[in-house]
User: Which sequence fits this backbone?
């Protein structure tokens, strides 16, 4: 990648990060392109050199938001661990993601969902992105379970697609509960119980 492209990519990322910060503070609906420009420390016109309009910023912010999570999961899937260990690592990664991720970014989850319902211009795109994300998430875990059947860390009678759907549902539900009521959820104990459940029922 040329130096010019690197600079443009960094500027584009800066605009997205600024947008996410303002979205989290003001809400997506109440945020203007000018608000994003002020946060990014650039002119409003510069925004339009990188994005068509506010909806384009919303969609690309959502993609960036998803990729923050997705890339970590994919790295685990590519390591040299046996299937069960990968599954335990993914559980730990999700819980650690909740511990360490900035609250303002996590709070965007519901705002993105609301925007996908509210705004017709972005609804179909975000819906499709969510659908693709969950499909790839389930497939990744399903493939890990298949690997585990081969390496002996998972029982051969497990239905990998069903178990993958169940595990994604558990982790996703944990994320929702954490966003809504952090004070009531002890992530350390949740991780211990998740590991215990996997160790008890996978072999």
Assistant:
């Amino acid at each position: 990648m040329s130096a010019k492209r690197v600079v443009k990519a960094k500027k584009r990322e800066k605009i997205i990060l600024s947008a996410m910060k303002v979205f989290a503070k003001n809400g997506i609906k109440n945020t203007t392109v000018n608000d994003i420009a002020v946060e990014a420390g650039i002119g409003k016109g510069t925004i339009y050199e990188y994005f068509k309009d506010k909806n384009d910023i919303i969609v690309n912010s959502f993609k960036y938001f998803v990729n923050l999570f997705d890339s970590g999961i994919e790295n685990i899937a590519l390591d040299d661990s046996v299937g069960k260990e990968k599954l335990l690592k993914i559980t730990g990664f999700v819980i650690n993601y909740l511990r360490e991720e900035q609250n303002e970014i996590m709070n965007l989850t519901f705002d993105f969902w609301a925007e996908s319902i509210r705004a017709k211009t972005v609804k179909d795109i975000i819906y499709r992105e969510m659908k693709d994300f969950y499909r790839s998430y389930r497939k990744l875990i399903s493939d890990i379970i298949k690997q585990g059947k081969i390496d002996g860390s998972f029982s051969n009678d497990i239905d990998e697609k069903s178990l993958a759907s169940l595990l994604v549902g558990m982790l996703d539900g944990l994320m929702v509960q954490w966003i809504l009521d952090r004070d009531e959820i002890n992530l350390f104990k949740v991780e211990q119980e998740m590991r215990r459940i996997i160790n008890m029922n996978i072999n």
